[in-house]
Amino acid sequence: MAILIENLEMVLEYVVTFCTIMLEMVGITVLVWSAIRCFFGWIHKDQHVRLDLAQGIALALEFKMGGEVLRTVVVREWRELGILGAIILLRGLLTFLIHWEIENEKKELQEHAKKVNPSKAHGEAEAEK
Length: 129
Prior knowledge:
Radius of gyration: 21 Å
Number of helices: 4
Distance between the termini: 62 Å
Strand content: under 5%
Largest sheet: none
Number of strands: 0
Helix content: over 70%
């Protein structure tokens, strides 16, 4: 019975490690893809480049944070748990700040649209209702 439990723990550790790596790779892929896409948007002077980049960074951070949460399953020492907790806390704080920046950027873009074309901005506001 003890050997079965050891084998199950080993399998669980491998599965969690694999899933953690996959989540982190998805986060890295999202970040790199967003950066490349926004770089070309910046070259073409797209107004929404900051908003798109912030949203890409926020999504990438959420995938990375998911990997860290999953990693807590296989933690064996309190010190490791403390380090993972600090990483999760910092990534959560970064995600919160980025979402705050996204909201501010959306408001700035809406205000800019109202100044540039007041009738069009009013029509968009009516369409959102």
